[in-house]
């Protein structure tokens, strides 16, 4: 009976060892050798200097499109909704008909929906579409019939006809007016205030005339960035996306498994692992550092699993130069002793059975 019990217990241990894997483990040999459809959808790639050189050759710094740099603002043209202040020197009754004690806006001239404004003596004046100098010259010429050598000045009290719109990860989104001073992209972004903690700095989109231009705010860190040379025009829309989906996932034998969000164009493997405190020196297998990268359609192209031998002397340099992509999964496998320890932990229940069997044998021997 004792032999039968021991045999049953040993069989249970063997069965349990077969049923349960001792911790997470990636069997790369199956990826390489299997001919199953599942294996054909995954490609194992070693992270080597040659691989990084090939990636560097294909990756180019994002350039600002030439048509954006070529645009130069013209003189401001008055539009519907603008509020103008027209000064006729030495004639306060024309400059401030409501009286100098009134707020300055009360003496402004609003450009009406039809593009005109009314001015004493000369009646309706076409304002929309004209530059400030053109309107000033027109009013001055027509007033000359009633005022001797009129000295006329025109300024804009409130800009309303031309604007750009900011949306997305800005502290202050919404419209911004274009004024007599040309507005460039960086000034508009500065006025809006970037939410640096939540923004995807590499995904800025400028919409103009039905086209979308992808710009990289992170390129401001490079010398002579061309973003300062982009001037905006009426109707431009600026969208800065949030970085909610710009994540990589760290799993396995790292010191802090979690999803890591980043906001710049690139995040390298060394920075990602370093952010969570590195590999667990006690439990990790330095040769089992993997980057799992999916594809949109597994039927057409295989997903890739990149492997880094972190025990190699050049591993840190390779990890620094290996750029991750959003939704990459970084998995660090356990060392052999770690998997064995976990295996033993899973068999604690069986060990109790063995102890019980030994006690039964001892009791039966004593009774005999």
Describe the structure.
The structure is a single chain. Strand 4 and strand 5 form a beta hairpin. Residues about 1-20 and about 350-360 have low confidence and may be disordered. The two termini are about 15 Å apart. The chain is rod-shaped. Helix 1 (about 1-20) packs antiparallel against helix 12 (about 350-365). By secondary structure, it is of the alpha+beta class. About 30% of the residues lie in helices and about 25% in strands. It has helices at about 1-20, 30-35, 35-40, 50-60, 65-70, 90-95, 130-145, 185-190, 270-275, 315-320, 335-345, 350-365; strands at about 40-45, 85-90, 110, 115-120, 125, 150-160, 165-170, 175, 205-210, 210-215, 235-240, 245-250, 260, 285-295, 305-310, 330-335. It has three domains: about 40-60 and about 245-335, Outer membrane lipoprotein wza fold like; about 85-160, 2-Layer Sandwich (wza like fold), CATH 3.30.1950.10; about 165-240, Outer membrane lipoprotein wza fold like (Roll). The strands form four sheets. It has a six-stranded mixed β-sheet. A five-stranded mixed β-sheet has the order 8-7-11-9-10, with helices on one face.
Question: Which short descriptors sum up this protein?
Answer:
Outer membrane lipoprotein wza fold like, six-stranded mixed beta sheet, 12 helices, five-stranded mixed beta sheet, 3 domains, wza like fold, alpha+beta
Short synopsis of the structure:
This protein has 368 residues and is α+β, with helices and mostly antiparallel strands. The protein has twelve helices and 16 strands. The chain has a six-stranded mixed β-sheet with strand order 1-15-14-16-12-13. A five-stranded mixed β-sheet has the order 8-7-11-9-10, covered by helices on one side.
């Amino acid at each position: 009976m004792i032999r039968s019990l021991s045999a049953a217990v040993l069989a249970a241990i063997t069965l349990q060892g077969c049923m349960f894997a001792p911790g997470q483990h990636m069997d790369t040999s199956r990826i390489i050798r299997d001919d199953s459809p599942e294996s054909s959808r995954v490609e194992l790639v070693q992270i080597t200097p040659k691989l990084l050189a090939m990636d560097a050759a294909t990756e180019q710094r994002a350039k600002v499109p030439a048509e954006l740099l070529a645009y130069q603002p013209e003189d401001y043209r008055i539009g519907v909704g603008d509020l103008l202040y027209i000064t006729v020197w030495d004639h306060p009754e024309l400059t401030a008909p409501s009286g100098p004690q009134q707020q300055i806006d009360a003496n402004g001239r609003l450009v009406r929906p039809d593009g005109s404004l009314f001015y004493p003596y000369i009646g309706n004046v076409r304002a929309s579409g004209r530059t400030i100098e053109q309107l000033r010259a027109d009013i001055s010429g027509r007033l000359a019939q009633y005022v001797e050598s009129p000295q006329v000045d025109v300024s804009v009290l409130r800009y309303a006809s031309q604007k750009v719109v900011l949306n997305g990860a800005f502290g202050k989104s919404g419209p911004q007016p274009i004024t007599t001073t040309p507005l460039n992209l960086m000034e508009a972004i500065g006025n809006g205030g970037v939410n640096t903690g939540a923004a995807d700095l590499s995904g800025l989109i400028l919409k103009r005339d039905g086209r979308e231009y992808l710009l990289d705010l992170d390129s401001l860190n490079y010398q002579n960035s061309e973003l300062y040379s982009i001037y905006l025009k009426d109707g431009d829309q600026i969208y800065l996306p949030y970085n909610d989906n710009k994540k990589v996932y760290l799993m396995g034998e790292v010191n802090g498994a979690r999803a890591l969000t980043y906001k710049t164009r690139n995040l390298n493997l060394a920075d990602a692992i370093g952010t969570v405190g590195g590999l667990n020196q006690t439990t990790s297998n330095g040769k089992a550092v993997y980057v799992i990268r999916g594809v949109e359609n597994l039927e057409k192209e295989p997903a890739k699993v990149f492997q880094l031998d972190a025990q190699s002397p050049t591993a840190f340099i390779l990890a620094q130069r290996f750029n991750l992509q959003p939704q990459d999964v970084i998995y660090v496998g356990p060392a052999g002793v770690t998997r064995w320890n976990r295996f033993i932990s899973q068999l604690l229940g069986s060990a109790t059975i063995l102890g019980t069997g030994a006690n039964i044998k001892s009791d039966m021997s004593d009774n005999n």
